[in-house]
């Protein structure tokens, strides 16, 4: 019996097929040629596939696969508003517009329009951050972890940094705070125990080699029961007495108080500075609701040191991040506007009743299309390590299926991927984390997945 692989057509022959000619008219030639080669290689590896004469459809499938971008928009129906795996905070319309404006041409990123000389990219957000937080100065880098490395490198490289054992946590992706801190060149001095650290633990650790005290926000969990920790407010007088700076990693980037919406226990950036830390670090894409970045607020003298550190250049942000952050910060000048215009804040503070009404409306629309969805109570969460023990009342669309795993895959692998969650054998789509403008798109995606 002859081997069918010996008769496989060449690239030139396949380029003459009608289906392939249509592909060439709609796609770059290199894409189609690579798709042909992939289809031939696939057939060569599988004798049964080599014997099937369906080259047009196989090449078309490869072209479609090659044209799907790796980074794609998805609908977050998990109920976790600041979902790290799904990109955390979506940007406000004002921030999106600002990014488009600076991305479409040249900018004065590092050019001083007043003097006509070279400027600094570090000046663009400083005035707004000072206005909104009360800080003397600020610097923006590419994320909060790099802000921590930069602060420790600039302030305490080659010296000791005192930190409580209860704050040496592991964050997403198996990255551990002590490993990140160690990259700064500072020497970590652990004090206290996992559950209890006292002021005396810090005082006994002070030596002539002490360069800083670090306070680290615990992400994604809380300690309760037989616990004790020392606040920055309690540490500040002692640190000032010994001329030791306090570096406080707050993590979440909260700018306005959300306690009236049931979200309590997170200090705002202004409050954190008022407690007495020399440097306060926070993220831009968590509760602040802006782009991914790390923000360092604090004393002017300390920030000058950070700007001169070589790490500052390695961790600098681009023009699009600066534009998005600036536009987001401008919305905070009116807190009421920020609560409606910044998507993360709007989703977190929307009433449960408004979520229920959206679910009911969507369930009615689906029923008209022959699709059954129940409206059920749900518990959403903030995500990204903020308010880890605070559930948010919400509602979700529930879908029953004999094979719930297959249903979840259909949602996830659709043209518009929908990421929900499975609970008690039911597929749930929690609308707390779905942008209202996505409701119509979600309806189409549900119909495609269920049908």
List keywords for this structure.
four-stranded antiparallel sheet; 451 residues; Aspartate Aminotransferase, domain 1; 16% strand; 3 domains; single chain; alpha/beta; seven-stranded mixed sheet; Aspartate Aminotransferase, domain 2
Characterise this structure.
By secondary structure, this protein is α/β, with parallel strands linked by helices. It has three domains: about 10-65; about 75-85 and about 345-450, Aspartate Aminotransferase, domain 1 (Alpha-Beta Complex); about 90-340, Type I PLP-dependent aspartate aminotransferase-like (Major domain) (Aspartate Aminotransferase, domain 2), CATH 3.40.640.10. It is built from 20 helices and 17 strands. The chain has helices spanning about 10-15, 20-25, 30-45, 45-50, 55-65, 95-105, 125-135, 145-155, 175-180, 200-205, 230-240, 270-275, 300-310, 310-315, 320-330, 335-340, 345-350, 350-370, 405-410, 440-450, and strands at about 75, 110, 115-120, 135-140, 160-165, 170, 175, 185-190, 210-215, 245-250, 280-285, 295-300, 375-380, 390-400, 420, 420-425, 425-430. It has a seven-stranded mixed sheet, sandwiched between helices. A hairpin with a 4-residue loop joins β2 and β3 (about 115-120). α3 packs across α5 (about 55-65). The longest helix has 17 residues, at about 30-45. The chain is globular, with a radius of gyration of 27 Å. The two termini are about 45 Å apart. The mean pLDDT is about 95.
């Amino acid at each position: 019996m002859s081997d069918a692989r010996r008769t496989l057509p060449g690239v030139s022959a396949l380029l003459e097929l009608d289906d392939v000619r249509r592909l060439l008219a709609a796609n770059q030639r290199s894409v189609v040629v690579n798709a042909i080669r992939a289809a031939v290689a696939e057939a060569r590896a599988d004798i049964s596939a080599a014997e099937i004469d369906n080259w047009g459809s196989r090449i078309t499938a490869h072209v479609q696969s090659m044209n799907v971008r790796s980074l794609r928009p998805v609908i977050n129906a998990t109920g976790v508003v600041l979902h790290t795996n799904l990109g955390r905070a979506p940007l406000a319309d004002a921030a999106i517009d600002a990014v488009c404006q600076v991305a479409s041409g040249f900018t004065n990123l590092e050019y001083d329009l007043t003097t006509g000389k070279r400027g600094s990219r570090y000046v663009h957000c400083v005035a707004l951050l000072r206005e909104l937080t009360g800080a003397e100065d600020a610097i923006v880098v590419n994320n909060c972890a790099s802000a921590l490395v930069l602060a420790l490198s600039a302030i305490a490289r080659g010296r000791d940094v005192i930190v409580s054992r209860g704050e040496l946590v592991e964050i997403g992706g198996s990255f551990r705070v002590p490993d990140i801190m160690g990259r700064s060149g500072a020497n970590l001095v652990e004090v206290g125990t996992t559950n209890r650290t006292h002021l005396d633990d810090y005082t006994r650790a002070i030596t002539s080699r002490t360069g800083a005290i670090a306070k680290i926000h615990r992400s994604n969990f809380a300690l309760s029961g037989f616990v004790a920790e020392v606040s920055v407010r309690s540490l500040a007088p002692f640190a000032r007495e010994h001329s030791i700076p306090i570096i406080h990693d707050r993590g979440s980037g909260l700018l306005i108080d959300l306690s009236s919406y049931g979200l309590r226990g997170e200090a705002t950036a202004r409050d954190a500075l008022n407690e007495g830390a020399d440097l306060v670090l926070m993220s831009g894409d968590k509760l602040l609701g802006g782009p991914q970045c790390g923000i360092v607020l604090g004393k002017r003298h300390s920030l000058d040191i950070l700007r001169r550190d070589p790490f500052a250049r390695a961790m600098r942000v681009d023009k699009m991040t600066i534009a998005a952050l600036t536009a987001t910060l401008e919305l905070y000048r009116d807190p009421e506007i920020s609560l409606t215009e910044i998507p993360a804040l709007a989703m977190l503070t929307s009433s449960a009743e408004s979520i229920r009404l959206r679910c009911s409306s969507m369930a009615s629309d689906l029923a008209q299309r022959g699709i059954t969805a129940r409206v059920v109570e749900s518990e959403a969460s903030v995500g990204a390590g903020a308010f880890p023990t605070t559930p948010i009342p919400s509602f979700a669309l529930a879908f029953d299926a004999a094979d719930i795993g297959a249903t979840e895959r259909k949602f996830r692998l659709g043209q518009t991927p929908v990421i929900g969650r499975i609970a008690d054998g039911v597929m749930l789509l929690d609308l707390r984390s779905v942008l209202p403008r996505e409701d119509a798109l979600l309806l189409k995606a549900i119909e495609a997945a269920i049908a």
